[in-house]
Design goal:
102 residues, Glutaredoxin, 5 strands
């Protein structure tokens, strides 16, 4: 089940395991298209935790992680950034990154 993260709980949300942080905006059409895909990936991969960050409300997190446009997917392993995808991505591309991080 995805977690809505903000500046107060983001560090805790990414601390353990494999985390996929989705930096998005409600007005972003590619973000809206990717949302069900990301939920599907999380559902099919019990070891992947989805953390969603709305850049409109949490611009400080976007600034810290140098997110200049959305969507951006940042992959974390035990709290450490391991990779990222900028822009809309296909399921196969996301799963490939997950497999590399595992």
């Amino acid at each position: 089940m995805s977690v809505r993260a903000n500046a107060d709980n983001f560090a805790e949300a990414i601390q353990s395991g494999l985390v996929l942080a989705d930096f998005y905006s409600d007005s972003c059409v590619p973000c809206k298209r990717m949302s069900p895909l990301l939920a599907e990936i999380e559902e099919e991969n019990s070891d992947v935790k989805l953390v969603k960050v709305n850049v409109n409300f949490d611009s400080s997190l976007a600034e810290i992680y140098a997110v200049q446009s959305v969507p951006v997917l940042i992959f974390f392993k035990d709290g450490v950034e391991t990779d990222r995808i900028r822009g809309a991505a296909k399921k196969a591309e996301i799963l490939e990154k997950i497999d590399q991080i595992r």
